[in-house]
Design goal:
The chain is mainly α. It contains 19 helices and six strands. The chain folds into three domains: 126 residues; 149 residues, no CATH class; 168 residues, no CATH class. A hairpin with a 2-residue loop joins strand 1 and strand 2.
Length: 494
């Protein structure tokens, strides 16, 4: 099938034939579909166990190896025939389209993280809808109050506390907070370790403000002795627990009896949020003692609920609805890596192996030299400033030859350097200016006050925007450069 496709492309679309774009496009799409389904399988939740991905490291290592092998095979085939040098007359935009095809091929071979993670996330979402997930996470979060929730911090005794490091009569006083032996909730004083002072469990589906409102609602139930709502909460929680076949040695009535102690809520039994049952492929031993929170000598009762397992699985579902796989920063990193590698391939394609290698060695030596200069001068900005000036000099020399139509063999090394470096020109200028502006502010301001400067804040807040706009510049620059390179090809080598 590939041979027939390539034959038709050779006759009708020689550029696509030369780059092997169609076969590579098919291979790239199929690979990413496979990655998606592997991720979907990895997103399987077993609600009787903690979620643990077995594929992440192995998958990414294997995927990177597969992509590297395919890329090497493609490059061997791609470099066999160079239409730019030998076979076909190039149209004005042919080189630009060739670079676009290189970018797409490399992108398809290197984006395996995104379909894998998206498949995993989609599977977790498919268990229950977002609306039901919110309802259940709210129930599980609230039930933490009556199982093993952490305690809200007691109020600070400001009269006996040292809130900041200070000196008193020449004697250094470190921060030392003394807490009151009570908390005030809804106008009444309670022990800091009273049940009413517990916190709910956090889920990414809810904001901290929503968690605080949920805590307040439960405290109102307890303070007003609203046993109906408390029992309703426990009943709803047990429905979720039983649906997922999780273990407990409690009943709803027993749970209420051993935890609900109106009005002081001092006497209650702690419920262990993990069972002592040994399960297949997972063992979590029963622990009678735990000092995870602030209360002294916390001792669990003999009652347990597999609450931690339930909470972990619903946190996976919660995270699937709130965490986006396609975030701007990692996408930008991927694109810049793809652009960088595509520039290396493209420059090798339009110049020669000898000039490409000379340019690589020259650039390495150049970096070592200016690195030493920067180290001797002990000035961070020396390096980027020399790079910017050197790049402008290289561009000037290259275009002076192209305009004058002099011998092009002397410019092959220069062309390689321009193709490699022009994509990073704007970010280098931007970050150099930002650093120099900060240094100027530091000369007049103290105690890191430059963080409050409006212009510095603008530069910092728009850094991501700059990297996004630079992508537009890269495409526009490559469109222009491809035409210049076509003109440059017509100059004699000697």
């Amino acid at each position: 099938m590939f041979k027939n496709i390539q034959k038709q492309l050779l006759l009708k679309y020689p550029l696509l034939w030369n780059t092997k774009f169609i076969p590579m496009l098919i291979i790239g799409v199929l690979l990413n579909l496979i990655y998606f389904f592997i991720g979907y399988a990895d997103g399987t939740l077993d609600f009787t166990k903690y979620y643990d991905s077995d594929f992440d490291f192995t998958f990414f290592s294997f995927s990177a190896l597969i992509s590297l092998i395919i890329l090497i095979l493609w490059l061997v085939s791609y470099f066999k025939n160079n239409s730019f040098k030998r076979f076909y007359t190039k149209s004005k935009n042919a080189l630009f389209f060739e670079w676009i095809q290189i970018v797409i091929i490399i992108l398809l071979l290197s984006m395996f993280y995104f379909p894998f993670e998206f498949g995993k996330q989609l599977h977790k979402r498919n268990y229950i809808s977002e609306e039901i997930a919110k309802e259940r996470c709210e129930t599980i979060s609230s039930a933490e109050f009556f199982i093993d929730g952490s305690f809200e911090e007691a109020e600070i005794d400001s009269a006996r506390s040292v809130l900041n490091d200070t000196n008193v009569n020449g004697e250094y006083k470190a921060v030392e907070r003394v807490y009151l032996d009570y908390v005030t909730i809804l106008g009444k004083k309670y022990s800091p370790y009273a049940l009413i002072n517990r916190n709910v469990a956090e889920f990414s589906l809810f904001s901290r403000e929503q968690d605080s409102l949920r805590e307040l609602k439960i405290r109102k139930f307890l303070a007003t002795n609203n046993t109906f709502e408390v029992k309703k909460l426990m009943r709803n929680y047990f429905k979720i627990l039983k649906e997922h076949k999780l273990l407990t040695n409690l009943t709803e009535d027993k749970w209420f009896t051993i935890t609900y102690n109106y009005p002081e809520f001092k006497k209650y039994e702690l419920i262990n949020p993990k069972s002592s049952i040994v399960k297949e492929n997972y063992t979590e031993p029963y622990s009678k003692y735990d000092y995870g929170y602030a209360e002294p000598d916390k001792t669990y009762s003999t009652y347990y609920i597999e609450h931690n397992i339930l909470k972990d699985n619903y946190r996976q579902i919660s995270g699937a609805y709130t965490s986006s796989v396609f975030q701007l920063e990692p996408i930008l990193v991927l694109f810049y890596c793809v652009f960088g590698f595509s520039m290396l391939i493209f420059s090798f394609r339009v110049t020669s192996g000898k000039s490409w290698l000379i340019a690589l060695v020259s650039y390495g030596i150049f970096n070592i030299v200016i690195g030493i200069i920067s180290g001797v001068l002990r000035e961070f900005l020396t390096y980027p400033i020399i790079v910017i000036i050197s790049f402008l000099v290289v561009v000037g020399l290259f275009f002076s030859v192209v305009i004058a139509k002099k011998t092009k063999s002397k410019t092959m090394v220069l062309l390689n350097l321009i193709i490699w470096l022009f994509g990073g020109f704007i970010p280098t200028v931007y970050l150099t200016y930002m650093e120099s502006y900060q240094n100027r502010l530091n000369a007049y301001l103290e105690n890191m006050e430059y963080y409050n400067d409006p212009h510095y804040i603008f530069l910092k807040d728009n850094m991501t925007t700059m990297f996004c706009l630079n992508i537009v510049f890269i495409f526009a620059g490559m469109f222009f450069m491809s035409r210049v390179i076509r003109t440059w090809k017509g100059i004699s080598e000697e």
